[in-house]
Design a protein that fits this description.
Helices cover about 20% and strands about 25% of the residues. The chain is of the alpha/beta class.
């Protein structure tokens, strides 16, 4: 927000190099550098859904920048599906990894901008959209042609719901 110098980031990812099987924080570091360059304060780290097809950066950002992170509350249901699907009963406990689990209809403010959380399942059963003013951050619901797809083949995804 230019007036208040408060910022949020949404769906920031870690980098993965398949050739070396290594991760890096290069993209997330660039996001933090931009925030610093513009003299902003990172107020929240938001995710629209758990990303099974790439690596999420909210925990790293929270540790690095000190800003709380949040995701939709239905991530708990997704985590339960993943535990069964991957046969890992102790894997992915959202309440340990996120500071807030947001419900459909929740609202919050960052600076002078009001955000509303809207459940928007399909890509995953717990995908959420952040609506702020005349903008909506719609996760993987709307995708640019040739740049990805609105996949629904993840556990709990639904083409009909999308």
């Amino acid at each position: 927000m230019p007036r208040t110098k408060q910022a949020v980031v949404i769906d920031v990812v870690l980098n993965f190099d398949p050739a070396s099987a290594r991760t890096s924080t290069e993209s997330a570091e660039r996001v933090l550098a931009l925030i610093e360059e513009r003299d902003l304060t990172l107020e929240r780290v938001l995710d629209t859904h758990p990303h099974a097809d790439h690596l999420m950066a909210p925990h790293w950002l929270r540790e690095r920048a000190g800003a709380p992170n949040a995701i939709g509350e239905k991530v708990q249901d997704i985590a339960e599906l993943w535990r069964g699907f991957y046969h890992e009963p102790d894997a992915f406990h959202p309440d340990r990894h996120f500071d807030a689990l947001l419900a459909d209809g929740d609202t919050f403010e960052v600076g002078n901008l009001a955000f509303r959380v809207m459940l928007s399942p399909g890509h995953t059963l717990g995908s959420i959209t952040y609506v702020a003013g005349d903008a909506a951050f719609v996760h993987d619901t709307l995708m640019y042609p040739d740049m990805g797809s609105s996949r629904t083949d993840f556990p709990g995804g639904s083409g009909a719901a999308l």
